[in-house]
Amino acid sequence: MITPTKGVRPERSLLYLGGQVLADLGEPTTVSAAWEALARRREREGQEATITFDWFVLALDLLCALGAIRLRDGLLVKVAKR
């Protein structure tokens, strides 16, 4: 689930999705805008694996747990590297 497994394709793993979200998170954005950006990216890259909103939220949870993003004033913000 977090990493690819026999049952989870690499492009559906939470780490992969989190990386895609981080790549698109140049400035603070809403959760729904990040969801739409991820959908556009996956379509542009021809990734056919279906991603539900629930799975997307799990990827956000993982990024929050890793300290890579945070929610500030209702917007997702990438945490600066220290």
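[next item in queue]
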Amino acid sequence: MNATSEVLEPVLPVLGPWLAGRRWFDARDAGARLAVRSATLVGREPPFLLHAVVAVDRTDGSLQRYQLLLGLGPELPTRLAPAAIASVPSGPRQGWHLYDAVADGALLGLLLRTLAGQGADGAPHLERTTRYPLPVGLVPRPLDVEQSNTTVSYGDRILLKIFRRPEPGPHTEVDVLDALTRQGCSRTPHLYGGLYSEAPGAEGLVLGLVEEFLSGAREGWEAAVRHASECVDGSCRGVPATGGFTPYAHSLGLAVAEVHGALGEAFGRTRLTIEDVAEEAARMNIRLKEAVEEVPALVRYAARLGVLFDDYARLAGRGCPVFAQRTHGDLHLGQALHTPDGWRIVDFEGEPDRPAAERARPQPVLRDVAGMLRSFDYAARTGLAASLHSGGGAEAVPPGQRLRRLRRSQAWAVRNRRAFVAGYASAGRDDPRCHPVLLRAFEADKAVYEAVYEARHRPDLLPIPLAAVHRLAGTAR
């Protein structure tokens, strides 16, 4: 049932402010004119599930799409009042209520049945990658874990990930999980299939995926921050050099290396030419130049960071081999889940602020290693902040004690970074310690990316990547 003209068009003026409050909405599109690309009503009786794709034409000529899951009904139960968006101002359904469907378990159940083949045409279509049937009748539970997507658990058996900024296929994460599932990789969740749009105006968009739910999983980020905080305030158990989070960091390095091995087998591994490396180093310098314009605090480090990037290019020019393959693309502790069976790596979508074509480009695996090293630094600083907060705030902690806690947080980061690298090397793949020039360049590039991200979204955290930039710039010749 097409709903473009009769429902969505009249509410676009009030839909914009609601979108601006979503975590997955790009603040650069606030106030921009929305255009409906597709809209479909799903269901035989109200409340209906309104699935839609709206778009913003940006001044730079690019197009940003957003995927919406909305509820539409003549009545709005009290339990759904916090999810209310607007009332339809005109048309056959004038006065009906429009609300966020993610808050309505009945509509999330309808979506699952639709994906399993029990729904109407025009709704998202599940292209299955396994012969096993998709279970239905499971209790949905939205997860508050992601910034750029929406994830729903069904009966703690399957996960539905909804790409809020859908793009035409192929999609990095769907392709990667499909390949690793076919390989039987034990370090990643198994894929049921990808979600695709068949609605007029949105044909070919990849809307999401359905994957295995990892029962009993704990997020690596939360565990790392907790351990770091305990170590910073002196309450950590065991010998600091071997206890705490260090064994987990070591086993995480091993798990990442195994995933890299599986990705290399699935997609192949190539040696980059001197020209390839030179072009990548040039892109790194361009990103640095653009970052300096947006984050003035980077100006003083620009020349020395440029030296690190140029050293990377010179290394390849001297004949040192640089290999590239499919990687995770946005690896950090939040993308690692610790389960009773060990570490699992998730979310292969890549860095959300990078273009889709760039995210799918083969890269040296040390880019992933550098991303995880940066994450340990973030965990240490976050643990430090938690420790100071528990003591009444930084101002309430005596200067000498603040300095001791800062040094402990730095030591925690160093220990766990080393443990992660050692674990990675123990898998028998390239030892990151044998490639210091590449690792420094990639970590610096990642820190520059982080500085831009934090300046845009979380300015209070900008000192974290800037501290890394300061340290890395000091290693330049």
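[queue empty]
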